[in-house]
Amino acid sequence: MYGNKVSDWLNKNMTEKSLIDELQEVVGLEDVISHPDDLLVYEYDGSVDSNIPLAVVFPSSVDEVSRILKITHSRGIPVVGRGSGTGLSGGAIAPDGGIQIAFTKMTRILEVNVQNRTATVEPGVINLDLDNHVREMGLRYAPDPSSQRACSIGGNIAENAGGPHCLAYGTTTNHVLEIESVLEDGSIVKLGGQCRDVPGYDLRGVFVGSEGTFGIATKITVRLLPLPEMVKTFLGIFPDIESACTAVSSVIGHGIVPAALEMIDALSIKAVQSVTDAGFPDDAGAVLLVELEGLSEEVEEVTERVESSLWDTGATNVLIAEDPEDREKLWVGRKTAFGAFGTIAPNYYLVDGVVPRTRLTQVLRKVSEIGSRYDITIANVFHAGDGNLHPCMLFDEREPGVLDRAMKAASEMMEYCVEVGGTLSGEHGIGLEKKEYMPLVFNEIDLSQMKKARDAFAPRNLLNPGKIFPDGESHPIEPHRVSPGQYI
Amino acid sequence: MTANTVLRVEEAVGANKILDPRENEAYQLGGMVPDVIVSVDDEKDISSALLVASQHSLCVSPWGGGTHQFLGNTPSRIDIILDLSKYNRVLDFQPADLTVTVEAGITLDDLKAVVSSSDKLVPIESPAANSATIGGILATGRSGPLRYTYGLPKDWVIGSRVVSATGEVAKSGGKVVKNVTGYDLNKLYCGSLGTLGVISEVTFKLAPHHPSSSAIIAELDSLDKACEFSSLLMSKVYAPQGIHILNNSSEFYTKYGLSSSESYYLVILFCGRAPAVLRRVRESTNLLMENGVVVKEQLSDEKSDALIEHVTNLGSAGENIAEWEVLVNIMPDNFLQVWRQCETLSLKSPLEFIGDPAFGTIRISIQDSDDMGNAVIIDHISQLRRFVDDRSGALTIWRCPSTVKEQLDVWGGNQPELRVMARIKDQFDPNGTLNPCRFMGRL
Q1: Number of structural domains in chain B
Q2: Which CATH number fits domain A341-457: 2.60.40.10, 3.40.190.120, 3.30.70.2740, 3.60.20.10?
Q3: How many Cβ atoms sit within 10 Å of the Cβ of residue A398?
């Protein structure tokens, strides 16, 4: 289904040419691209899938987005919004015969209201740009996906993006107040409101994480949080991953929900240390990053408990960073891990399963066993605090049969996550990548209720069709090449 | 019709699940007495009753503790009430995973008791917590005095099983604290007042129990000053977890020995780890006293928790339930202006106010109205609603005499998204089986 070729495009008829003309009438000649060479850039996102869109349009306003959707609606052409294309489940890949609306021209921070602690932004604003902007006012935007240097707020809304600090502060859905959205027929609606509580069905709440199938967000008001007085980061060094998992349970068991609680396994440590000195010992079996935030008194009180949790569960050393430079150095190790995997193998395939946190040890043992059985190298860097695993299978696609083995291993891992009470995706979304696995979690009735919500927003299913719901058609999976600076 | 309805429902759920008809009167809604009450103790009861209702064009309303049945428009018709108050088991409590799964009929107090036994917390407050059920609290979306810090009840829901209008059971979310597998339909069901489905089971994520809590009651001589100090405190690094402005609240004044003068009282709430609570209280108190504000009370732990409960229940539960309860949602920077406008309501009885300036809500309780008074109140509230609407806020009438509901829309709201809401209702309940006409836009 996904994989039409440039030659298909060349065979397009006059109808499509007039579509391009109509789109150009809305946004101007320069802001529609439709030549196959230009479109290649928009074939991919951060996932394993690809598909060439019919055209990519670059609107500058909600009015233009509305007019674009009126055109596509009248022609029955599918549409997908595209932020920065960093998504990991194929959410921004163009549907067959569809166009992309890219938000690279809608990147303004429209307003920051310090008293209300809100910011109103266009969808193309980069997550970290917003955070940096409001930090100057003593505030911050809490959701911090590892791709925050590149990913957009619009994309974050579509995927309900997470990040290390979502352990304490919740995912994107907890930080969005109001969404201006254009529906598939070009109508403009406001979902939610500027107030923290508004009566009526929570259209905002169900829109966040709908992976672009409900509407195209054109303006978003988010909540901001005050900066904490004190931040302290701990690096627990462990001889093996089991003891590090025990430490996770011990910290939470002490009634502490840290701001972040991240795990990096031995293979990942070696990869990281080969590209940067993050201060991780080469011979460590696993390291645990624990970050505490809050009033100095509460951070200090909890410090002792966190330290004792780490030591008591077998840490061989515990390092503590308090000043921003030292903390950043520890985080660099976490954030560069996936890019560093390129030193081990040229290709990877990543799983995003999530399990009850007390099952981590059991599940990681199973992941290791599956990896051995399929002869696939697996590195683990993940959000341990909320049980969100990221087993990363590393291989060289030139090795015959390896891709097939990796896919089977991934499938078994997802099945096992579900078997122990978990689910398919903690933060990357379903998209194209995992849609055929949805029946592991949801039966036909569950899925039909979800489709009812979609049909209320998009009765003709013209927005990002072919995502989330299984259609029984397998799609070709291509291994992803590890690029420098890759972040997950 | 009545006999047929009873027979059909009896056949579907079993005669032993049907309450004695003499009890039906107690379940009336807007003056309508339902034909049959099903006492649910199994998910199949909900499912079977809804199936038979959808097959025979009967209308159904779910009922938890019955503490908030006054909310919403008068339904156009009610044949069957599903009483879920006996459907109240804890199904799965995992303290180490910080999750709990319960049947929807469990009361908030019972749920809190279960999780607190393992030092965990469901950070939700509701009036009449000893009888308000989890399903009802989620369906109404009612929140409490710590909403600024902990958000709304729906923010703690990570999974649910909901019975559809045709009796099918659908799952949403799961039992893990982070999950983007499929749409978050939980958000849609919460706050929908039982018009999209009947919430059957709920999984919550939990917070660690507060080791310490504290509260301050301070007296200010003007609304401006009360708002000024609220903003000042909330801007500090040692900000409290909740702050409220109370005015004319006789029950509160009596309970805490305060004068019923023209004063405005700040109720400042703190919770968390003991050293942090101590510092927040100390620095907040110092700030107030340095500025000449009179601190009337400082309460700790049980007394502080009792204050939270008292504020939660004011005008909504207990002996002094207001005839009218109006909720205004507003942005914090419009709070003062809107409260001032509320005060211009010129009624024969004093209005009681509780405002949450940091979150952005004002709750107004009105007592002692009569038929003549109702007309005046309707007129004033309509004016106030326009003022609030113009400032991107919302005014909802939570409670009022049932006769009034014919004369004004308790929800308000003429937003463009009502069209989408109508399509949601049409998708989830095309035959209008569930609480018909009760929701916003008479959905």
Answers
A1: 4
A2: 3.30.70.2740
A3: 8
Give the minimum alpha-carbon distance from B172 to chain A in angstroms, rounded to a whole number.
7
Number of Cβ within 10 Å of residue A5's Cβ equals 10
Vertex A466 angle, CA A460 and A472, to 5°: 120
Nearest CA in chain A to B357: A116
Beta bridge partners of A381: A264
* B273·A297 Cβ contact <8 A: yes
pLDDT digits (tens, 9 = 90+) for A392-439: 999 998 999 998 999 999 999 999 999 999 999 999 999 999 999 999
B residues 22-81 lying closer than 8 A (beta carbon) to A: none
Q: What is the pLDDT of residue A5?
A: 52
Collapse the DSSP code of A267 into the 3-class scheme (helix H, G, I; strand E, B; otherwise coil) and give the result: helix
Q: Which of residues 366-405 of A touch B (CB under 8 A)?
A: 383, 386-388
Chain B positions touching A217 (Cβ under 8 A) are none
Answer whether CATH 3.30.465.10 is correct for domain A112-226: yes
* CA proximity to A50, closest of A102, A3, A89: A3
Where does A6-104 sit in CATH, by number? 3.30.43.10
Residue B302 lies in a domain: yes
B137-160 pLDDT per residue, tens: 999 999 999 999 999 999 999 999
| Residue A38 token pair | 């230009």
pLDDT at B371 over 70: no
Where does the pLDDT of residue A484 fall: very low under 50, low under 70, confident under 90, or very high at 90 and above? Answer: very low
Domain borders along chain A are: 6-104, 112-226, 230-335, 341-457
Among the partner-chain residues B181, B273, B440, the one whose CB lies closest to the CB of A441 is B181
A117 near A227, Cβ under 8 Å? no
A350 touches chain B (CB under 8 A): no
**Residues in chain B within 8 Å Cβ distance of A438:** 181-182
With tokens 């549907």, the residue in question is A95
Q: What fold characterizes domain A230-335?
A: Alpha-Beta Plaits (3.30.70)
